[in-house]
Amino acid sequence: MAVAGGAAVARAITAHAGQGLERGEYAHVVATRDHHVDPGDHFSDSPDFLDTWPRHCVVDTDGVELHPALDRGTLQAVFDKGEHAAAYSGFEGAADGVGLADWLRGHGVDTVDVVGIATDHCVRATALDAVAEGFATRVLLPLTVGVAEGTTAAALDQLRTAGVELTGEPQRF
């Protein structure tokens, strides 16, 4: 999904993940992605950018691929979500038939950092579900970018209220 500043965030995530793995700060790095076959009314010719969106991340198109600035070499798994319905949280996705929460627990993970796009939608939903699943959760705001200022501010308030740790300042492009 194209978001202003998304390419810069992808490059920054690549650098951060690589450095974090080298320093031993991360044991695992995974990604989530929209992977749409027919997500129903999630797509619209007149999107509201809250519940409906232009066509994006459609299976069997180049749009389903992770951004080229994101180094896949650091990723242990990619969790696909939203094939037949809107899905914002990475916890709605699966990799090789295994859900994100089960994968994390199976790899001894109890703390997660959430980064990516968009702060006000997928990052928000993933972080909220991480907390609900019992993971200590942190959103690294310099490694996220939102769709809109108002919805991003509301998302940050919701995350704080839910007990998500927010670090740094959000990107503004």
Describe this structure in words.
This protein has 173 residues and is an alpha/beta fold. The protein has four helices and seven strands; from the N terminus they run H-E-E-E-E-H-E-H-E-H-E. The chain has helices at 6-22, 100-106, 119-132, 149-162; strands spanning 30-34, 77-81, 94-95, 98-99, 111-117, 136-145, 165-167. Helix 3 packs parallel to helix 4. It is globular and about 45 Å long. The chain starts with 5 loop residues before the first helix and ends in a 6-residue tail after the last strand. The model has no long low-confidence stretch (mean pLDDT 91).
Features:
single chain; about 170 residues; two-stranded parallel ribbon; alpha/beta
What's the SSE blueprint?
Blueprint: H1 6-22, E1 30-34, E2 77-81, E3 94-95, E4 98-99, H2 100-106, E5 111-117, H3 119-132, E6 136-145, H4 149-162, E7 165-167
Could you tell me the mean pLDDT? 91
> What is the percentage of strand-forming residues?
15-25%
Helical amount: 25-40%
Q: Could you give the count of β-strands?
A: 7
| Dominant shape | globular
Strands in their spatial order, largest beta sheet: 5-6-7
Distance between the termini: 16 Å
Question: Nutshell version of this structure?
Answer:
This protein is an alpha/beta fold and 173 residues long. Helices cover 30% and strands 20% of the residues.
